Amino acid sequence: MITNKTQLSGEQSKSMSSYLSPLVQQIQPSGIRRFFDMAAGSKDIISLGVGEPDFKTPWHVREACVYSLERGFTGYTSNAGMPELREGIANYLHTRFNLDYDPANQIITTVGGSEAIDLALRALISPGDEILIPEPCYISYSPITSIGGGIPVGIETFGKDRFKLTAEGLEAKITPRSKILILCYPSNPTGAIMSREDWEPIAKVVEKHDLIVISDEIYAELTYGSNHVSFVSLPGMMDRTILVSGFSKAFAMTGWRMGYACGHPELISAMLKIHQYTVMCAPSMGQVAALEALTNGMEEKDRMVDSYNQRRRLIVKGLREAGLECHEPQGAFYAFPSIAGTGLTSDEFAKRLLREFRVAAVPGSVFGLGGEGYLRCSYATSVSQLNEALERIGALVALLKNERENKA
Amino acid sequence: MEQVNELKRKVLELLKEDARRTPELLATLLGAEEEEVKTAIEQMEKDHVIVKYATVVNWDKVDDERVTALIEVQITPERGRGFEGIAERIYLYPQVKSVYLMSGAYDLLVEVEGRNLREVANFVSEKLSPIDSVLSTKTNFTLKKYKQDGIIFEDHEEDNRLMISP
């Protein structure tokens, strides 16, 4: 992710760049952004590139927000968020994952899960700290670590392990400067989940090396077959873990930017300091909507999860029939097939898929170590679109096979 | 009433969304065997759980004159047969699209379709009202259909998500 100084062109840019923070200058624009720019403006493209639900926010949630606006609920809330919402989050975490947090001092509502991660990192990082990040992973962890003055250290995970983090993999990257481990399971982009048995050895390593964990569990509701096991639920992990989550994925509320973080009161208090001086509080209307989602939204959520599950089966079967190896994702809404057998890099494959077959998917390489050779395909799109996209992917794979045979 | 098991219920839900879905696609979506799905569908067709595969049409978009009325009908039930016999007399008319027995202020809700107002009015005055057990009718013409069978007719909500996002 980090390169030498970004080259800027033009007189004005050159002079302006000297003002910019070196930390920011060394950050590259994301590979996702690059692909977005390629796809933007094109027509008739089927997109498997979208990291958000294809459902609209359930109507009762939208309506609750509209009603609150009508009543004039437009002011600040307390910095940590409306007490009712924090209470609602505490109840939810208890009911769903058997986690007990005190809404008074262990929960803070944030502007999306993203702000929660940023707050956690900024509250914890001293310059030079190493932040361990299992990859392939969500694109923001590494740059946001760098901006915070930390040093991101990728831990490669592998298709053969179904992209689960292993204790050996983790331990191999630990140095005396290691401080934080960022976890994201269910995983974007691989769809991997971790069972209690998978977590136990990880927790031991975390304890042994006295790491703090940021556990991004934004996809916790989206699992298929087995329930999500929160890393926090492992013995001894609650106090050294900041749980980050939000409403975007489970309740189709991406644009609302409603997230939260839970953890040890001292950690939350430190995060709250940054939060109150930067954003003051999460948007009040979003908080009302989030509370409605938690209170009355479980049925709709179940319906959406059911629908993702159906499409998950369709895409995995379709990708395999198209001739791509694809492990079965157990969570989130991404399939992560291997395109290594086609002879192209993931970037080349995704470009040809977009240009020649008008299907947008994200090359695995943008998600860090271990992502090369894979393609992230979101199945949060309609069955008919998925079917069409799968046919086109099959056509590209067949074409590539022909090209290879003709060359040989 | 047939006990609809889980697979059948899910097959029904998916066919309600799109009746053109093949058993192969349904089986993939549900993680079931294709044969199992085929058998379930055949059984439900036989048992009249699946009565018909229909198309929801927004007739307002077709250059085709037709009006629909919802008629509230009050009835004196017949000894021994209650509302059944009278309902049958009504639903057998081809211009009657649906008949529901209702609780509340009236007994039957009858949906009638005709080419114009006069045709519907004639049906009410010449066929429906003269039936002995019919005490009263109240005809409500449909001005516009917004939603039918869970489908919003004027829904132009497009997928306006970014093409690619994290």
Automatic annotation (TrEMBL), chain A:
GO terms for biological process: amino acid metabolic process. One of its GO terms (molecular function) is pyridoxal phosphate binding. Residues 43-393 form the Aminotransferase class I/classII large domain. Its cofactor is pyridoxal 5'-phosphate. The keyword Transferase applies. Its EC number is 2.6.1.-. It holds the Pfam family Aminotran_1_2. Keywords: Aminotransferase, Pyridoxal phosphate, Transferase. PROSITE patterns: AA_TRANSFER_CLASS_1. The keyword Coiled coil does not apply. Belongs to the class-I pyridoxal-phosphate-dependent aminotransferase family. This is Aminotransferase. It comes from Paenibacillus durus. The lineage of its organism: Bacteria, Bacillati, Bacillota, Bacilli, Bacillales.
From TrEMBL, chain B:
Keywords: DNA-binding. The keyword DNA-binding applies. One of its GO terms (molecular function) is DNA binding. It comes from the Bacteria. InterPro entries: Dimeric_a/b-barrel (IPR011008), HTH-Siroheme_Decarb (IPR050684), Tscrpt_reg_AsnC-like (IPR019888), Tscrpt_reg_AsnC/Lrp_C (IPR019887), WH-like_DNA-bd_sf (IPR036388), WH_DNA-bd_sf (IPR036390). Gene3D superfamilies: 3.30.70.920, Winged helix-like DNA-binding domain superfamily/Winged helix DNA-binding domain (1.10.10.10). Residues 73-144 form the Transcription regulator AsnC/Lrp ligand binding domain. PANTHER family: HTH-TYPE TRANSCRIPTIONAL REGULATOR PTR2, TRANSCRIPTIONAL REGULATOR, ASNC FAMILY. This is DNA-binding transcriptional regulator, Lrp family. It comes from Paenibacillus sophorae.
